[in-house]
Amino acid sequence: MSAVLEARIQAKHFGSKHVLAPIQLQIAAGEVVSLVGASGSGKSTLLRIVAGLERAFSGEVSLDGQRLTGRSPDIGFIFQEPRLFPWLSVADNVAFAEPSPTAATRARVSELLTEVGLAGYEAALPKELSGGQAQRVAIARGLFTQPRVLLLDEPFSAVDAFTRMKLQDLLTRIARHHGITLLLVTHDIDEAVYLSDRVLVLEANPGTVRESVALNLPQPRDRTDPALSQARVQVLAALQRVHAI
Q1: Beta partners for residue 35, in sequence order
Q2: Rounded CA gap, 126 and 118, in Å?
Q3: CA nearest to 36, candidates 173, 237, 245, 172
Q4: How far apart are CA 74 and CA 10, in angstroms?
Q5: For residue 245, what pLDDT band results from cuts at 50, 70 and 90?
Q6: How far apart are CA 144 and CA 76, in angstroms?
Q7: Which residue(s) pair with 80 in the sheet?
Q8: pLDDT tens digits along 97-132
């Protein structure tokens, strides 16, 4: 299967600090890939490079074989915190990429909010939402431009365990429905195993991909499936090998 997203990173520095060593990243259409590794392994930096938010690096990122030179509407980004504008309504936060909303825009916003379980919340302000609801708005905003690739930087780390599981299920359902490719950073091994087709394990200082663990498990997944526990052992073993180097 050909890659929809490719990143060829030679190096990334912050001043004198060498953050990323050479990385070759290829992700197929519809694939879900997680980045895991110790703090300092450059996971979030790699995500920001792919998103076009970090442009001072040696290398290139391409989508469908076309080199990207900055931000692309085909690549969405969901941050660790919802980052909603407190003075804007939920609907205006979702449609922020379109400063002059039309009737069609408002209809699309309502459709997305229904999809994330927030029908009727268009006029609500962020302060009226729970943490899980705010992150659902962030997911809807990430989907608004109809991206082909969605990047997520620890998107569920700030919510409780039960809400996290519900949001994980929501994400996988939406990704399958829209045929979106996902690349996410997580420190939660269970989350990586539950969501991903592949888990990439990064070594730190400087960051580079040392191991790739393929998870050949059907979707949607059952959290009680013993195969998930076996996959978790595989990922943990890879982490131990990498960080024992």
Answers
A1: 185, 200
A2: 12
A3: 237
A4: 24
A5: low
A6: 9
A7: none
A8: 887 878 999 999 999 999 999 999 999 999 999 999
Beta carbons within 8 Å of 228's beta carbon, 6+ residues apart: 190, 193, 194, 217, 221, 222
Distance between CA 86 and CA 83 in Å, rounded?
A: 9
Which pair of tokens denotes residue 222?
Answer: 């059952």
pTM: 0.94
C-alpha–C-alpha distance, residues 73 and 150, integer Å? 10
CA 47 to CA 153: how far, in whole Å? 7
State the pLDDT at residue 30: 94
Tokens of 34: 């997680």
Cis previous bond, 73, omega within 30: no
pLDDT in tens, 138-185: 999 999 999 999 999 999 988 999 999 999 999 999 999 999 999 999
Give the three-state DSSP class for 43. Answer: helix
Beta strands in 50-157 (DSSP E): 58-63, 66-68, 75-78, 149-153
How sure is the predictor about 85, in pLDDT bands with cuts at 50, 70 and 90?
Answer: very high
CA dist 185 and 194 (Å) reads 13
Q: What gap in Å lies between CA 173 and CA 219, rounded to an integer?
A: 9
